[in-house]
Predict the structure.
Amino acid sequence: MNLGMVEIPNNWLEEIINLSAERIVVVNREGIICYINSAYCDFIGTTVESALGKPVQDVIENTRMHIVAKTGQKELAALQPIHGTEMIANRYPLIVNGELVGALGTVIFRNPDELRLYKNKIEHLAEELNFYKAKAEKEMKSKYRFDDLIGVSPSFLTVKKLAERISGSQSSVFIKGESGTGKELFAHAIHNSSLRASHPFVPINCASIPEHLLESELFGYEDGAFTGAKKGGKKGLFQLAHNGTLFLDEIGDMPLSMQSKLLRALQEKEIHRIGGHKSIPVDVRIISATHRNLEKMVDEGTFRQDLYYRLNVVKIEIPPLRERKDDIELLSIKLLEKLEKKFYRKGIQLSSRVIERLQRHKWLGNIRELENVLERAINVLNGNKIELIHLPLYLQEPAAETNHNQHNDTNTQTNHLAAIIPLTPKPLKEIVATVEKQAILNALAVANGNKLEAAKILEVGKTSFYEKCKLYQIK
Ligand SMILES: Nc1ncnc2c1ncn2[C@@H]1O[C@H](COP(=O)(O)OP(=O)(O)OP(=O)(O)O)[C@@H](O)[C@H]1O
Ligand SMILES: [Mg+2]
């Protein structure tokens, strides 16, 4: 093995220094900061940009770096109070080609208690940051536009054009499509292209809310409407969506009793809060969606016909992915670009055999299934090219295409597990979470995306299933 050939690219060095978690500063002979890492800056409450080029005494309390840069005498394990915390500083002269060119300094915490205190503080901040990140992400999601709807196949373009055309109208829109075909995306895009775009887009998933809460969610309640009611009452989603769009997702799962109340609100264009007497006028455009066959439900008497007519003024029917084979390669490429950002990867490609295999698959879970397959592939990928072996087993074997029973084969299960459980040991909690997420995704694939069915397969309650989906960001 020729070790001399292995070299670290320059742009890795910065990251390596940061990961080594030390607070590092480098000054030149004049004591001007010419390098400082972000860990140090975070600690002293500044930024790399503002610290660079400044005399070190102006940036770091009680520093002696400018002195070491002159004397060339190292100072090890020196106590240095920073921010009221006693730190241990190591200061080394920086000698390059036999010449003193400056100094390098690091600081570490003096005792474990202080480190722990600091860690607690940071952990708290990190938690807060994650919370706001997730929130921002969620809010960003309401920004889907028609440009985000990828597809060039004629059947998809026809639907997309129709949706664009009717965006501006006030009519109710009913979006029909199998699970994972992009119903939610269409709803966002329609709202964003409408005159209501600057007003709220309020989504509600009718399947995920227990029946007895649905009414108060939609219409709100007055102060003291029932025991446990929030003081001052609560606005319902109808009111929150005033002047905007209310997106009734999974409308096929709305119980009959609620269907009547919804119909009344739509006809009268006003709502009554629970426990309230006055009617509140609301101006809301309704977009509804379901993967269920509402016509059949109407025939069977489980969905009100009058409500169906009210909702179904404009019907948008999104074709399933298997009928849009032309879109699969393009979608995969675009989805990979999105995933690359998420996983900090670059230049991931699909082998032609993989593309050909993806085009032959039935995609019962549609684009969401495609997304999951690609995400899984990135997770097990070492190089940059996705090959057949990076696909889940049911996609590796041509015969398995229509046969989800493969999931029951013990061998398959073991291989599946081997693929998800990381070889490098990780905290058990993380492994369990990975396996749990995969189990949910598998159940969803088998249940054709139907969450209630998937919950039944896994023998867990509906509420806990939805909670887990939320936790693992499974939509
Ligand atoms: N045309 C598209 N272009 C790009 N991404 C898409 C497209 N259609 C769907 N997706 C992606 O596929 C996933 C599923 O889309 P979405 O949630 O809108 O499906 P859905 O029809 O509402 O499914 P369900 O019935 O299960 O709720 C999302 O992550 C979405 O970003
Ligand atoms: Mg949806």
Observations:
- The pocket of magnesium ion (ligand 2) is lined by residues 183-184, 249 (CB under 6 Å).
